[in-house]
Amino acid sequence: MTAETKIPTGTDLRAEIDRLRKSRNAVILAHYYQKPEIQDIADYVGDSLQLSQLAADTDADVIAFCGVKFMADTAKILSPQKIVVLPDMDAGCSLEDSCPPDKFRAFREAHPDHIALTYINCSTEVKALSDVIVTSSSAETILQQIPKSQKIIFGPDRHLGGYLNRKFDRDMLLWPGVCIVHEAFSETELLKLKEQYPGAPIAAHPECPAQIVAHADYVGSTSGILQFAKSFPGDTLIVATEPHIIHQMEKALPEKNFIGAPGADGNCNCNICPYMALNTMEKLYTAVRDLEPRIEIEEGLRLKAKQSLDKMLEMASGTVGKGDLGRA
Ligand code: 13P
Ligand code: SF4
Q1: Alpha-carbon distance 295 to 61, whole Å?
Q2: Which atom of ligand 2 is nearest to the CA of 96?
Q3: CB 275 near ligand 2, within 6 Å
Q4: Using a 6 Å cutoff on CB, does residue 96 contact ligand 2?
Q5: Measuring from atom 9 of ligand 1, which residue has the nearest CA?
Q6: CATH H-level, domain 182-260: superfamily
Q7: Which of 30, 96, 131, 298 is the most exposed place for a label (fewest CB within 10 A)?
Q8: Mind listing the pLDDT tens digit for each residue in 232-278?
Q9: Is ligand 2 within 6 A of the CB of residue 121?
Q10: Residue 283 in contact with residue 87, Cβ under 8 Å?
Q11: In the chain, what are the domain boundaries?
């Protein structure tokens, strides 16, 4: 029986989720790539760093995490005493899938003089094998604190790693993973769109390939892109990241025009994250009602993974507040 079929007909999902979150002392955290209705019911909407910080600091008993599994795992690693539920346990990530822990361990062992600076989009096991975790909003700040003489492995996103190498003149060894969503943007179609809207700037996530980033007027995390959207002087912005973030832009600036960058087929449907899309209002409702599916992590593994995450929170402390952290 699926979660949806266990819901009595006529249930007012919004009202029930609201009632349950109060009675269970639950906080609903949502990533910017979630469906608009989930963003709108969440207590907080944020990027990966902000959601990690909230998970570490909240005094709620339950965290209902509307994002993907590595994000909910991060919440559990940082707040083990809390119940953490993820509406759909199959909400994975192509970057996490690209980096199996045994292969990552072998890669590390082949480069004993390198430290591992690792993107948060990876499994708990890979976090446990890493020295410092970064998110797209903290990577630049953290990398600049590491001396240039230090050899570094960066995984699993080769596009984010390549962007950092180019920007800071580093030569980090890159794991060959990609985000299937950002990989799908088409340079040819982007240039056609640019011709249609000649004055419109392009804001791109650093998970985009180099040929997309090369055309961007702003490159940054989801919260950074949102900040840029709130401050650019024109009336049209081309957004090269998962298009659900446009919901926050349209709410904040209804008079402006936000256009999702196109994929190879000329529309941006292929840029909707299929993993994020697995979470629905129905599944969120049954998750806060049944407190399932629940994230569980073996304690020894959790403690190892926590070290690299704590290092990130410590080294990124200056980054807090730069984004758009706030109630939905
Ligand atoms: P940020 O929200 O940290 O920019 O991450 C983007 C992303 O792809 C999350 O999966
Ligand atoms: Fe992973 Fe890309 Fe989806 Fe983010 S958008 S969860 S990086 S597949």
Answers
A1: 14
A2: 1
A3: yes
A4: no
A5: 48
A6: NadA-like (3.40.50.10800)
A7: 298
A8: 999 999 999 999 999 999 999 999 999 999 988 776 567 999 999 99
A9: yes
A10: yes
A11: 3-91+276-297, 95-178+303-320, 182-260
- Number of residues in the chain: 328
pLDDT 10s digits, 182-227: 999 999 999 999 999 999 999 999 999 999 999 999 999 999 999 9
Which tokens hold the place of 305? 């993974």
pLDDT given at position 268? 54
Query: Nearest bound ligand to CA 270?
Result: 2
Choosing among 3.30.420.40, 3.40.50.10800, 3.10.20.310, 3.40.50.1000, the CATH entry for 95-178+303-320 is 3.40.50.10800
pLDDT at 327: 38
For a mutational test of ligand 1's pocket, the pick from 68, 73, 222, i.e. the residue with the most ligand atoms closer than 8 A to its C-beta, is 222
Q: What six digits make up the tokens of 237?
A: 């912005």
Reference 319, options 27, 12, 16, 48; nearest CA is 48
Q: What is the CATH number of domain 3-91+276-297?
A: 3.40.50.10800
Of 94, 74, 87, 106, residue with least CA distance to 26: 87
Cβ within 8 Å of residue 80, ≥6 positions away: 297, 299, 302
CB of 241 sitting under 6 A from ligand 1: no
Q: What is residue 52's predicted lDDT score, i.e. its pLDDT?
A: 87
Locate the ligand 1 atom nearest the alpha carbon of residue 93 and give its number.
10
**Which two structure tokens, joined as six digits, stand for 129?**
């094998």
- Atom 8 of ligand 2, nearest CA residue: 93
| Centroid of ligand 2 to alpha carbon of 23 (angstroms) | 32
Residue in 126, 180, 272 to alter for ligand 2 test, most ligand atoms within 8 A of Cβ: 180
Helices (H), the chain: 13-23, 36-41, 48-57, 69-78, 94-97, 101-110, 124-128, 139-143, 158-168, 180-183, 187-196, 210-213, 222-231, 246-252, 281-290, 299-315
Dihedral pair phi/psi, residue 65, rounded to 5°: -100, 110
- 62 HSE (CA, 13 A, CB side): 23
